[in-house]
Automatic annotation (TrEMBL):
Pathway: Isoprenoid biosynthesis; isopentenyl diphosphate biosynthesis via DXP pathway; isopentenyl diphosphate from 1-deoxy-D-xylulose 5-phosphate: step 5/6
Membership in a protein family: Belongs to the IspG family.
Name the record gives this protein: 4-hydroxy-3-methylbut-2-en-1-yl diphosphate synthase (ferredoxin), chloroplastic
Source organism per UniProt: Marchantia polymorpha
Required co-factors: [4Fe-4S] cluster
Length: 750
């Protein structure tokens, strides 16, 4: 098979789809980088710029399969593999996997999506651990994980297992192992699955050092991993146990990060080192996970993993989860975005929603997500096949619509009706206009002597299905004051024609845009609402329009198309035709929709698109839901998709037996005192296992270093150790102040 070196590009050459041969691919010159996560094979240990490339021979198991090829960019002679990461991009088809047995529970595509959680008790406290497992099982959980960090905990596991069996509970138990191969061997004799973290099972704790390896050095490291991991594989084969090779973005080894960076690619390669050993030993009762606290990173890592498995011909199941998601609606939203996006593509066989709450509270949102995924794959709603050439599967690149600009003759400022980092639209009723100040507060404006002013998290545009009558001067004045501060007002064409409101924007259906555009008053800004699955002939009207934005709306009772796939098709059409209108995802939930269902469904559908960079904002409607809840949920989704930061970001672990303080209590205390710091990210970690690494996206870290002692971090660097817990929160605040990130909370006008 021909290969390509970095100095000679040969048109039509065969390039393996596997990315396993690359070192620090992210650092390659742009001319050698492929779109949508394509990969090149480099044939020698040469330097490209300042990047040392490792030879593939002897270091990696390269796949002989060749992927379908495509140009690296339009008109390019450079070919790259177009990697498959799911069964279908046009509808939800569950990825076919092998079956992994975890005790008496089968995991894989032939079985329901399994729900799991993790205990928060001290594993040595046998009675408390047993009680918690029983409560979890009674809530409908399928699998429970328990941390096992030492010999005393391993000894307790036998008692926990025996006690549960005596009480009639046969729920499979999973041992969570970090840094302790010997403990994994011991507990494999009693627990049903062993979760190993490839970042620290055989490697030392990451020091975030850049290491240089010769090919021989690297091979010796792989031989060391095999020596350490083989006894566990052999024991699991003997006892019929399962293994989860569970990579965490926050705990990659220095060796992996030196080669691949702190990246999704490094996460996958870290797991594959262990998978190759298991396969070499003819052990296949294992599954993968690729967890990160950032849903964007998490989605990319799982896609890369599956793409590589397709190339290798592997079909192992997936455990899905967003780690350190946090608590409340924020934690549920982050999980819905990451897990839901993958479920929409038919990926995922067992899931956990990691919340900084009691583990039994994880089961409900986890079950809702699992049911949503099962429903989507059973119904297989979607759209007809289309060319999907512009979406970035493996790396985030946002499609940004052209924001409104001022035009000659404008009497108000339209530039604020959408936000460059993602917009929030809200539906406002005539009833709300009866109390303007309450409405202004609900829209999150600042109030000065009763007059509204825009703030960081103010709603960008309101949608009014009905306009106030012309004679209702008070209501019209309330709306005018919003327009005056550049809050957009959007209303149906019929309302604007019947009750003209100066400077309001008109919402047209696609049919109205085709047949009734002449009815729109001259100079009026307008938006177009459409489904996304219209024929291309119908969509062609968009080429001749000057719309301010598009709203994509599919009714909740839609039986034909799915929101995710119809929207992907629409975005492909827009990109192919160089149509740059901003696109707003519009979801309208029926009466009776529960809050958790709204969060999970909107995160799974709109979030699945935003996490791919597809969309410029959203509008959530639910007639019987609290207005404040809808607004905060909308902004929470934008922040969870790494778009618009309007509040403090928290990376908060869900707690386990390793946790050195009461995470729920401390998290609540820190949130209460720091929630007014938008743009600041704070990690609250119960122990050091994933602490520094999972704080990759955090500005400051509060980490349990020892019982009743806290270590404080700036980024990944520890700056203060052993702070008494009684003063640690104030020390964190002082650290934020010392780094110039503190502002005093505003006094809210009564």
């Amino acid at each position: 098979m021909q290969t390509m070196n970095v100095t000679g590009l040969v048109q039509g050459v065969a390039i393996p789809a596997s990315f396993s041969s690359l070192k620090r691919m992210d650092s390659l010159p742009a001319c050698l980088q492929a779109p949508s996560g394509g990969f090149l094979r480099l044939s020698s240990a040469k330097k490209v710029g300042n990047v040392r490339m490792a030879r593939s021979s002897g270091v990696r198991n390269m796949s002989p399969e060749i992927a379908e090829m495509e140009p690296a960019s339009k008109g390019s002679q450079l070919l790259v593999p177009r990697q498959k990461y799911c069964e279908s991009i046009y509808k939800t088809v569950r990825r076919e996997t092998s079956t992994v047995m975890i005790g008496n529970v089968a995991v894989g595509s032939e079985h329901p999506i399994r729900v799991q959680t993790m205990t928060t008790t001290d594993t040595k406290d046998i009675a408390a651990s047993v009680d918690q497992v029983m409560r979890i099982a009674d809530k409908g959980c399928d699998i429970v994980r328990i941390t096992v960090q030492g010999r005393k905990e391993a000894d307790a596991c036998y008692e926990i297992k025996n006690t549960l069996v005596k009480k009639g509970y046969n729920i499979p138990l999973v041992a969570d192992i970090h840094f302790a191969p010997a403990i994994a061997l011991k507990v494999a004799e009693c627990f049903d699955k062993i979760r190993i973290n490839p970042g620290n099972f055989a490697d030392r704790r990451a020091q975030f050092e850049i290491l240089e390896y010769t090919e021989d050095d690297y091979q010796q490291e792989l031989e060391h991993i095999e020596k350490v991991f083989t006894p566990l594989v052999e024991k699991c084969k003997k006892y019929g146990r399962a293994i989860r090779i569970g990579t965490n973005h926050g705990s990659l080894s220095d060796r992996i990060m030196s080669y691949y960076g702190d990246s999704p690619r490094g996460m996958v390669e870290s797991a594959f080192e262990y998978a190759r050993i298991a396969r070499k030993l003819d052990f296949h009762n294992f599954l993968f996970s690729m967890k990160a606290s950032n849903p964007v990173v998490m989605v990319q890592a799982y896609r890369l993993l599956v793409a590589e498995m397709y190339v290798q011909g592997w079909n192992y199941p997936l455990h899905l989860g967003v780690t350190e998601a946090g608590e409340g609606e924020d934690g549920r939203m982050k999980s819905a975005i990451g897990i839901g996006a993958l479920l929409q593509d038919g990926l995922g066989d067992t899931i956990r929603v990691s919340l900084t709450e009691a583990p039994e509270y994880e089961i409900d949102p986890c079950t809702r997500l699992a049911n949503l995924g099962m429903k989507a794959s059973a119904e297989q709603r979607g759209v007809d096949a289309f060319e999907d050439n512009h979406r970035r599967y493996f790396d985030f690149q946002r499609r940004t619509g052209t924001l409104p600009a001022q035009k000659e003759g404008d009497t108000v400022d339209y530039r604020g009706v959408l936000h460059r980092d993602g917009s929030v639209l809200m539906s406002v009723s005539l009833e709300q206009l009866k109390n303007p100040e309450a409405l202004y507060r609900a829209l999150s404006t600042k109030l000065i002597i009763g007059m509204p002013y825009k703030d960081l998290a103010t709603v960008d545009t309101i949608f009014m299905r009905e306009l106030p009558p012309v004679e209702d001067k008070g209501a019209r004045l309330a709306v005018k004051r919003l327009i005056d501060i550049s809050v957009g007002v959007l209303t149906p064409l019929s309302e604007q024609l019947a009750k003209p409101l100066p400077n309001a924007m008109v919402l047209l259906t696609l049919k109205e845009a085709t047949e009734s555009l002449d009815k729109v008053p001259a100079g009026t800004r307008y938006a177009v609402t459409l489904r996304g699955d219209e024929s291309y002939e119908e969509l062609d009207i968009l080429k001749s329009l000057d719309a301010t934005m598009l709203l994509v709306y599919l009714p909740e009772d839609e039986q034909r198309s799915s929101r995710v796939h119809a929207s992907r098709r629409l975005f492909e059409y827009l990109e192919s035709n160089c149509i740059n209108f901003p696109v707003i995802h519009h979801l309208n939930f029926p009466a009776g929709t529960l809050r958790d269902d709204l969060v999970i469904k909107s995160g799974s559908e709109a979030g699945a698109l935003l996490v791919d960079g597809l969309g410029d904002g959203l509008m959530l409607e639910a007639a019987d839901q609290d207005f404040e809840f809808l607004r905060t949920t909308s902004f929470g989704m934008l922040q969870g998709c790494r778009m618009r930061n309007t509040k403090t970001e928290y990376v908060s672990c869900p707690s386990c037996g390793r946790t050195l303080f009461d995470l729920q209590e401390i998290s609540a205390e820190i949130r209460e005192k720091t929630s007014h710091l938008p743009g600041v990210s704070i990690a609250i970690m119960g122990c050091i296992v994933n602490g520094p690494g999972e704080m990759a996206d955090a500005d400051f870290g509060y980490v349990g270093g020892a019982p009743d002692k806290i270590d404080l971090y700036v980024g990944k660097d520890v700056v203060k150790r052993g702070i008494p817990m009684s003063t640690a929160t104030e020390a964190l605040i002082q650290l934020i102040k010392d780094n110039g990130r503190w502002v005093e909370p505003e006094v809210v006008e009564a």
